[in-house]
């Protein structure tokens, strides 16, 4: 890629400026240069086919995002002709192949635009929770049958195009992975699969890999595969150029490598004999790639020789039941890892959503439908199944298996089905609304008291109460799974657990998260009257957010009564006093933080940077320029020493320096630091997090004045 660096830099510039025509022109130019590299290769290898597929995606993108048809049909036909005749050794008629592509595209759009939306519409018409759950369950069952029919046709066409006699259904078995195996796939979900073979015949593996390449080409031709932005990299750059906002990725092969084609940076091979594939179910692979292990456990037969699948499942069962070096069962170790990797967002929620009162909160971050909604029931229910080795393939079956094994109560099973339905409906609603694999599920705004209808529209959901109840169930479910990991005897499990936290404070904090500020306030005030001490902190947090510092301070004083003050308390008290324009007291609270941190051997930390920046800002307001400069230099010394640089603190750090340089009439340096703050905000809050960017730009405008 060295010879393409100049074009890549131009592409980065065009992407930054959102110059669509220039992006399309440069994509075509890059594609042509890559195409020439392919033609010049003498050997015919699978890597050539892979590069050819990438060029085809680039050409598709250039056509799709440009107002003009920059790539001629002849170029596309030449590319297809090369791929099929020279690389994949196809003797089939290309025109017949294109007819099938057209048929598949129509089928896919029928599923996406009609069947998927019909499920959402039917669910929204249901007023009773049970009816809504049944609608989603039945709808996804039919949806997955349609998707599997499409994928089966794609596999069969790939086999026909390949025309190789060694492709015999007795010799291999295609297993579905991920959401395709669990019955939760949407028409925009990545296609994930592996292939089992009856023996380690290298020729058979090579033929099946070619079959997978043709499958990938067919899927790419449907026009919803994301651009391979890894191609567009330059030296010393961590990532390539992300074109997702231009391409609208949807129905595509898994970019994470969970297909039989794998990924160059992954050392596993997903075309194996049953025993070889089962060997991945071990602690070494679990440490390196826990999600791969989870998906290889949670697979489902789809195509070919079913006996290979049955043999593989027996081997997996033996692997899961064996004892590890710590004398615990392997299946429990798997459950522990999956619980940790899949529920990081919920772990934060279990800490009662505690955030500081200043601008370091995550209210500007996007909510991710996949990681923060869909994965919670997916990981937690699978975690319980692994702990107790109960039956079930789909999520619905796993809930039934837990109920039949007396691990959970009937009421608990009803609640688990409810959060599964909410997660699936929300994800499908988000994808169909965006007509792409867009995970962004709204954005946390600041200082806006929205009504319920506005919030529902904002989050692509028909009933925000369902989302509140979702978390009321997810929180106790998470705690139950955590406890269950360490229980060896099933008889000691609390089978009466309902998985529904109905406490007023919990419901209020969830309402607060989804911008239902008035509902949160009423719930917290009611909880306060009933003597719930944990309501004090949430009332402080709510009133701080709504710009009522006096009320926030009053409740915080009640919260810290008979409490030993920690660093978070000192920060919060300092910010509250600053909001009340009591600069002297604010300075006193902030000055205590570096002392406290030094006592606890944490002087060289980002918290200390944050404290020094706050002290500097207040000293600047009070006109103490020497002290302001001293504390900024202390913050700079720490930043240059430590490797971890937390985004939200670095944003405030650069803004503090921007203010200092502006006060010294060094406006170029001030502007430079504002730009650094914006760069960190883009990285930390995501490119669409307008709230934080607007906040920084407002401060920049104030400095300019």
TrEMBL record:
It comes from the Eukaryota. This is 25655_t:CDS:1. The lineage of its organism: Eukaryota, Fungi, Fungi incertae sedis, Mucoromycota, Glomeromycotina. It comes from Dentiscutata erythropus.
């Amino acid at each position: 890629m060295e010879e393409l660096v100049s074009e890549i830099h131009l592409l980065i510039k065009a992407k930054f400026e959102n110059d669509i025509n220039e992006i399309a022109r440069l994509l075509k130019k890059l594609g042509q240069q890559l195409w020439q590299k392919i033609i010049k290769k003498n050997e015919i290898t699978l890597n050539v086919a892979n590069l050819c597929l990438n060029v085809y995606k680039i050409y598709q993108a250039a056509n799709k995002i440009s107002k003009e048809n920059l790539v001629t049909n002849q170029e596309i036909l030449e590319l297809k002709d090369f791929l099929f005749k020279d690389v994949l050794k196809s003797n089939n008629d290309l025109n017949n192949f294109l007819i099938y592509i057209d048929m598949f595209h129509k089928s896919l759009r029928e599923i996406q635009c009609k069947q998927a939306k019909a499920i959402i519409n039917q669910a929204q018409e249901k007023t009773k929770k049970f009816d809504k759950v049944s609608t989603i369950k039945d709808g996804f069952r039919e949806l997955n049958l349609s998707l599997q029919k499409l994928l089966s046709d794609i596999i069969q066409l790939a086999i026909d195009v390949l025309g190789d006699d060694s492709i015999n259904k007795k010799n291999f078995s295609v297993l579905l992975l991920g959401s395709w195996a669990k019955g939760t796939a949407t028409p925009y979900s990545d296609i994930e699969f592996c292939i089992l073979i009856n023996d380690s015949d290298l020729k058979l593996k090579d033929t099946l890999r070619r079959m997978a390449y043709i499958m990938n080409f067919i899927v790419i031709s449907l026009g919803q595969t994301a651009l391979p932005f890894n191609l567009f990299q330059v030296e010393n750059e961590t990532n390539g150029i992300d074109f997702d906002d231009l391409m609208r990725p949807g129905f595509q092969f898994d970019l994470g490598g969970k297909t039989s084609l794998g990924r160059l940076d992954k050392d596993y091979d997903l075309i194996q004999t049953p025993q070889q594939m089962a060997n991945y179910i071990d602690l070494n692979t679990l440490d390196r790639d826990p999600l791969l292990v989870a998906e290889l456990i949670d697979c489902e037969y789809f195509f070919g020789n079913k006996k290979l699948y049955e043999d593989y499942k027996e081997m997996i069962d033996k692997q899961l039941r064996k004892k590890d070096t710590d004398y615990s069962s392997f299946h429990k170790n798997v459950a522990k890892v999956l619980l940790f990797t899949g529920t990081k967002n919920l772990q934060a929620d279990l800490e009662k959503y505690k955030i500081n009162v200043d601008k370091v909160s995550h209210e500007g971050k996007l909510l991710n439908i996949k990681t923060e909604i869909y994965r919670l029931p997916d990981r937690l229910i699978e975690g319980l199944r692994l702990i107790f080795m109960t039956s079930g393939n789909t999520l619905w079956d796993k809930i039934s298996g837990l109920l039949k094994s007396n691990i959970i109560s009937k009421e608990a099973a009803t609640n688990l089905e409810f959060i599964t339905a909410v997660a699936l409906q929300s994800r499908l609603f988000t994808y169909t609304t965006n007509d792409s694999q867009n995970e962004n599920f709204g954005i946390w705004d600041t200082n806006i008291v929205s009504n319920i209808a506005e919030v529902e529209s904002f989050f692509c959901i028909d009933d925000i109460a369902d989302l509140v109840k979702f978390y009321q169930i997810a929180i106790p479910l998470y705690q139950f799974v955590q406890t269950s990991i360490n229980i060896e005897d099933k008889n000691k499990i609390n089978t009466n657990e309902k998985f529904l936290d109905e406490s007023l404070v919990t419901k209020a904090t969830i309402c607060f998260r989804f911008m239902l500020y008035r509902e949160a306030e009423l719930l917290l005030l009611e909880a306060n009257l009933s003597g719930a001490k944990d309501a004090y902190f949430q009332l402080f947090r709510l009133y701080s957010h709504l710009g009522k510092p006096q009320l926030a301070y009053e409740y915080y004083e009640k919260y810290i009564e008979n409490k030993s003050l920690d660093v978070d308390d000192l920060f919060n008290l300092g910010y509250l006093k600053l909001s009340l324009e009591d600069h002297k007291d604010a300075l006193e609270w902030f000055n205590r933080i570096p002392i406290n941190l030094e006592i606890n051997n944490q002087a060289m930390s980002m918290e200390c940077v944050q404290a020094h920046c706050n002290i500097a800002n207040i000293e600047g307001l009070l006109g103490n320029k020497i002290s302001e400069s001293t504390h900024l230099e202390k913050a700079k010394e720490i930043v240059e020493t430590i490797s971890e640089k937390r985004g939200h603190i670095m944003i405030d750090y650069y803004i503090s320096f921007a203010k200092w340089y502006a006060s010294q009439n060094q406006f170029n340096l001030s502007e430079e630091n504002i730009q650094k703050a914006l760069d960190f905000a883009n990285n930390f809050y995501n490119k669409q997090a307008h709230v934080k960017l607007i906040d920084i730009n407002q401060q920049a405008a104030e400095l300019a004045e």
